[in-house]
């Protein structure tokens, strides 16, 4: 089996020191950790490579359009005070026409350089907390309530951030606990040496706006919430019963929550029908 080789880096990053480190790769984009201005200032680099099977003019138009849409959503949210990564730079390069263009690092595409967010994704935090709870079933009632209070508070803060997102007229498009991070406000987030109970303190930050768009439709906002609710149901079964806490935080942050939550009921009903039909 041949080792995967990512597309060439955009020209501004081909000779940086240290070189960018590939973190994740998807069908549409690659995420790297790199530096900005100084070798000690980390930054996140998202690259949307060109699609060689597309006509170069169409490819350039679509790639440019998508990276600009993501950047506009992020810029708007930063202006509105929503916790998202700040944009540092962006650009796009035309797709090379010859094989030598690819070999020399001119494969084209678009890139977005963003603020680096330290911390853990919420998915990992909740998985560690649920694992810790499962291993400590003998805890007293008071301790159990204290643990549940911590996770309720985290969900309330997530609701506040999602409410701010929708208040700004932006929908995420892929709202899951993998696209939420906890950025430590003091000491770095950590768990006990035995891999135990994680900290839930920190600022909730929304990430990965590759599918985001600007919308003021209740339907779009309700679908955002439904996707997040389903993520809790499938990935965090012990935390799912507290999802109403997230919706309460959403109500507190967004005045238009009532109509969106009413539409959420309709979206849930359609989701159940699809599940029954298969």
Describe the structure.
The protein has 278 residues and is α+β, with helices and mostly antiparallel strands. It has helices at 56-79, 99-103, 122-135, 141-167, 218-235, 243-253, 257-277, and strands at 21-25, 30-36, 38-49, 87-93, 109-115, 120-121, 170-171, 180-183, 203-206, 213-214. It has two domains: 11-115, 2-Layer Sandwich (Phosphorylase Kinase, domain 1), CATH 3.30.200; 120-277, Transferase(Phosphotransferase) domain 1 (Transferase(Phosphotransferase), domain 1, Orthogonal Bundle). Helix content is 43%, strand content 19%. Strands 1-2-3-5-4 form a five-stranded antiparallel sheet. A hairpin with a 1-residue loop joins strand 2 and strand 3 (38-49). The two termini are 36 Å apart. Residues 102-106 have low confidence and may be disordered.
What is the chains' assembly state?
Answer: single chain
Helix content: 40-55%
Rounded average pLDDT: 89
The name of the CATH topology of the largest domain is Transferase(Phosphotransferase), domain 1
**β-strand number:** 10
* Ends distance: 36 Å
Largest sheet: 5 strands, antiparallel
Order of helices and strands: EEEHEHEEHHEEEEHHH
Q: Which of globular, elongated, flat, extended, rod-shaped describes the shape? A: globular
Strand order of the largest sheet: 1-2-3-5-4
Rg calc:
21 Å
CATH architecture level-2 label of the largest domain: Orthogonal Bundle
**Sheet/helix structural class:** alpha+beta
- In CATH, the homologous superfamily of the largest domain goes by the name Transferase(Phosphotransferase) domain 1
Strand content: 15-25%
